[in-house]
Write a structure and sequence with these properties.
The protein is mainly alpha-helical. It has helices at about 1-15, 20-40, 50-80, 85-109.
């Protein structure tokens, strides 16, 4: 319990100190998502199914690409698979999904 409390305090302090940098990183993440979604507009039809597939691919592409960069670097150095690939993909996906939900909420209000 004490370790978790200390970890929570340290991580909270880290978030407070790195907020400007984190905001830029989140903006880059959203920009990459928007660019992929916009590019896929040329591929998929304008119907409901095409729009849903386009949005799904855009939501999944960025976290997988973010996870592949360190995985490929790790593989080039160690010649084995990056052990935390899916962890990194999930963290990136949660951050991206949270940012997209916040942006959707801001756009509707």
């Amino acid at each position: 319990m004490l370790k978790q409390t200390v970890a929570l305090l340290v991580l909270s302090l880290l978030v407070i100190l790195t907020t400007p940098y984190t905001q830029h990183a989140m903006q880059y993440l959203l920009d990459a998502h928007d660019w992929i979604a916009q590019t896929l507009t040329q591929v998929f039809s304008g119907g409901e199914v095409g729009d849903m597939i386009r949005r799904l691919i855009a939501l999944l592409a960025v976290p997988i690409l973010v996870g592949l960069v360190p995985a490929l670097l790790y593989w080039a150095i160690k010649r084995s698979w990056f052990p935390y690939f899916m962890h990194l993909v999930w963290v990136t996906w949660f951050l991206q999904a949270g940012a997209l939900l916040i942006m959707a909420k801001v756009a509707t209000s």
